[in-house]
Amino acid sequence: DHVDANQTVSLKLYDDSKGATTCNTMLIDKNSCDGNAIFIDVDGDGEVSGSGIYVHMKKAGGNSDTSDNYIGVYAEVELEDDDNVGMLAGGRFQGYNNAGGGDTEGVYGVWGQGIQDAGTEADYVYGSFFQANVDGGEVDENIYGQYISTDVESGVSSIVDIYGQYIKVDADTNPGGGV
Questions:
Q1: 3-state class of 62 per DSSP?
Q2: CA distances from 26 to 7, 8, 12, 42 (A)
Q3: What is the three-class DSSP state of 73?
Q4: What are the residues whose beta carbons fall under 8 Å from the beta carbon of 21, sequence distance 6 or more?
Q5: What DSSP string runs through 111-173?
Q6: Under 8 Å between Cβ of 38 and 28
Q7: Which site in 49, 155, 156, 171 is 20 to 30 Å from 117, CA atoms measured?
């Protein structure tokens, strides 16, 4: 339905296939100046699993060329204001294990992969790509293309190794350049 710029839409969702799950809320505010444009709250006491946001796109035919881009989630945050602000981020991701006595196979702040199947062609395949692009202005401190911090407190047990960065290359073919 049509929603004016200052109105909000709230959807209450309930999934009774998971047993004791509680209501989930999705709030869409087209003119949110001090909150979230889209707020999704999913929690529960039963077998809650899945994704807060799941996007699946598949191009199976039709005409396209290298000028056509397919992006599952595109986020852009632009500051065009003279006010002082705190953080300005295109995305913020956090994997938070607070299960107490439970066991988690892995905790990832960000997990991604670039996949190339046999019989297809690409100029490049990136597992991740980050760029600090400074075209002008003034930077009071440092510029980092990538900043990695590993912080392990003294009360953590059962540690085998700690790495600030771990790079594994498994190359079953001989490239034309170096590895």
A1: coil
A2: 14, 10, 7, 9
A3: coil
A4: 14, 15, 44, 45, 46, 47, 48
A5: -------TT---S---S--------SS--SS---S--------TT--------S--------S
A6: yes
A7: 49
* Cα 107 to chain centroid, rounded: 13
- pTM recorded for the entire structure: 0.62
Which residues on neighbouring strands pair with residue 165, listed in sequence order? none
**Non-local CB neighbours of 151 within 8 Å, separated by 6+ positions:** none
pLDDT digits (tens, 9 = 90+) for 125-168: 888 888 899 998 888 899 999 999 999 999 888 888 999 999 88
Distance CA 107, CA 95 (A): 6
Q: Residue 131 to residues 80, 142, 164: CA-CA distances in angstroms?
A: 21, 14, 19
What are the beta bridge partners of residue 44? 21
Task: Tally Cβ neighbours within 10 Å of residue 23.
Answer: 12
Name the percent of the chain lying above pLDDT 70. 69
Q: Which residue has the higher pLDDT, 29 or 125?
A: 125
